[in-house]
Amino acid sequence: MTATLIRGRTLSFKRAPAGLEDKHAYAYEPDGALLIEDGLILASGSYDAVKAKAAGDITEIDHRPHLILPGFIDTHLHFPQMQVIGSYAANLLEWLNTYTFPEECRFVETAHAERIATHFFDEMVRHGTTTAVAYCSVHKTSADAFFAEALRRNMRMVAGKVMMDRNAPQGLLDTPEMAYDETRAVIDQWHGKGRNHVAITPRFAITSTPEQMSAAQALVREFPDLHVQTHLSENRDEIDFTCSLYPEAADYTDVYARYGLLGPKTLLGHCIHLSEREMDVMSETGSIAVHCPTSNLFLGSGLFPLKKLVGRDKAVRIAVATDIGGGSSYSMLRTMDEAYKIQQLQAERLNPLESFYYMTLGNARALSLDNKIGTLEPGTDADFIVLNMAATPATALKAEVVNSLADELFLLQTMGDDRAIAETYVAGVAAKTGLA
Ligand code: GUN
Ligand code: ZN
């Protein structure tokens, strides 16, 4: 394959920015380029320096004046909930029982799972999300449909067959043995195939018996390198119900700790109402609190204490995510706009450099995948996006008065959505252009 030179303004983070003036936290090239070949970034930097490295027959694509960033990473969403988005409910448990569980029952049908998988990956590409961490449904067929489509699209995806054996409709229940056997089968069939990663996925403590939690623990012991994903401390009624189901546990976090499910590959969705003790446990185990702003507002779950978690002596690792379909947008830009407002309501600041760090390198680090995604570093996957801050009449008008990188990022975050994504490159291939 011949190499391709992609020209544009490039931005890639090196670490979490300490503040708006922290220019060492990122590399920004006003006239930058990427040299890509065989799905990887071979070189990045100023256009002149990268061009000098490009030997022989190369294709050149010019995206100026747009901004090139690593592809967005979404660390928590539910593939079977595309048709649940915007369901009118008072709170989490009502929303789950009334809309979400019935909808997920439909994923027993392979044809339905395959149809939704096609739409799912289209939306990821349309919104500039090149890696997502997804819950499938309890049915193995849903995981098969998801991973088959991810393989066809050559996208780096993390996903799991949900384990759940109580407190849900019959059509959505497995057993501890089935959950173990089918998760193993999904691992054997899909993990490491193409760019697929399988995650061990007990839905949450309410829908797993102690026996099923032990099955999840056995899987984690057998496959310690795999990601683990579940939900934690999203809603007060959920917390009370969990504690009543596991009276021996000190608190909700302790339920997962007792089954050995916490650790540096563990992603815990929401984490809104944690006690200091629970935050300490999260910190000590290196577990990740996944912030899902549009979902937390939509379901009225509460305000995520982002600054408290990252700023305390025993800091908690965090990530950001859409949580489709409790979340209301596929866009990581819309997601970080709501994250910003959630901090505003707590008299905290989230600056635009931090936001873009979280959507890219921050989330890659949370997944321990920063050697592959989340940056424009040579040797990493050529998953990147092209952003146009002036994609609509209203943003174009505002863009006239934007004159710094931080202001540009803030405009993209505040008013941007899929229309701001001019192109999405997946393993070096322009994938958004190819959408129907
Ligand atoms: N807790 C358990 N399942 C879910 C889910 O599907 N969405 C949300 N937001 N929280 C959950
Ligand atoms: Zn969720």
UniProtKB/TrEMBL annotation:
<dbReference type="InterPro" id="IPR006680">
    <property type="entry name" value="Amidohydro-rel"/>
</dbReference>
<dbReference type="Pfam" id="PF01979">
    <property type="entry name" value="Amidohydro_1"/>
</dbReference>
<dbReference type="InterPro" id="IPR011059">
    <property type="entry name" value="Metal-dep_hydrolase_composite"/>
</dbReference>
<dbReference type="InterPro" id="IPR032466">
    <property type="entry name" value="Metal_Hydrolase"/>
</dbReference>
<dbReference type="InterPro" id="IPR014311">
    <property type="entry name" value="Guanine_deaminase"/>
</dbReference>
<comment type="function">
    <text>Catalyzes the hydrolytic deamination of guanine, producing xanthine and ammonia.</text>
</comment>
<keyword id="KW-0378">Hydrolase</keyword>
<dbReference type="InterPro" id="IPR051607">
    <property type="entry name" value="Metallo-dep_hydrolases"/>
</dbReference>
<protein>
    <recommendedName>
        <fullName>Guanine deaminase</fullName>
        <ecNumber>3.5.4.3</ecNumber>
    </recommendedName>
</protein>
<feature type="domain" description="Amidohydrolase-related">
    <location>
        <begin position="68"/>
        <end position="428"/>
    </location>
</feature>
<keyword id="KW-0862">Zinc</keyword>
<dbReference type="GO" id="GO:0008892">
    <property type="term" value="F:guanine deaminase activity"/>
</dbReference>
<comment type="similarity">
    <text>Belongs to the metallo-dependent hydrolases superfamily. ATZ/TRZ family.</text>
</comment>
<keyword id="KW-0479">Metal-binding</keyword>
<comment type="pathway">
    <text>Purine metabolism; guanine degradation; xanthine from guanine: step 1/1.</text>
</comment>
